[in-house]
Amino acid sequence: MSNYEARGEAKADKAEGRSKEFAGKVKEKVGDLIGDDEMASRGTVRRADGKKDRLKGEIKDKVEDAKDTAKAGVEAVKDKLSKRH
């Protein structure tokens, strides 16, 4: 998978997660407001699922950042070694 594709997946995960978090929070509040504990609980579960997706996207971003940093470091070392010879 290319860096571009991985970044796209991370962005999609984060967007989906935020959407689920928002929908879950709304469902929680409506459930609380009308006294429907089951609805509020389903909202809590949806919000937690959204948080999981959002964090998965954030982790993917961090992994790609680390890969980019490592790649740049390897290139810098190669440059230094090639200039010595």
Automatic annotation (TrEMBL):
It comes from the Bacteria. It comes from Hydrocarboniphaga effusa AP103. Residues 13-71 form the CsbD-like domain. Belongs to the UPF0337 (CsbD) family. Pfam families: CsbD. Residues 1-27, 65-85 are annotated as: Disordered. This is CsbD-like domain-containing protein. InterPro entries: CsbD, YjbJ_sf. The lineage of its organism: Bacteria, Pseudomonadati, Pseudomonadota, Gammaproteobacteria, Nevskiales.
